[in-house]
Please model this.
Amino acid sequence: MLVASAWLHDVGYSPDLVDTGFHSLDGGRWLRRERFDDRIAGLVAHHSCAWLEAEERGLYDVLVSEFPREDSPVADALCFSDMTTGPDGQNFEVLDRLAEIRSRYGPDHLVTRFIVRAEPEMVSAVRRTEARLAGSTPQPMYGSRRSS
Ligand SMILES: [Fe+2]
Model:
């Protein structure tokens, strides 16, 4: 599921598949039309906090009514894969990847607004996955500083 959804997660950018112009939703719809597994379509439709971008685009209700949102280690790992890999396949630390996206789109772009809002959840998903890969229990993450 993870490998298939990772390969397919940005299929909705294909010009032939554009419907709403929101690549996550368009990709999920195409996968469903092509009879891919429903779980893959849902993972793609919601990949990397797509529900927050859907809010920016006025498509949140459409997205969540068409595709169930999976909250799981696989969904985290898909976000991890997306947010630690650059546009040319290079490895990134998640905060550097998020900075790269913000600089690529510029300060006023809808995608930048989405990325700023999504950063805490994306970083948490990456850290949870890193902890799973390390075989340890995830610790309290992003934004949860203890005062002493
Ligand atoms: Fe994407």
Summary: The chain has one domain: 2-134. Residues 49 and 118 are 6 Å apart (CA to CA).
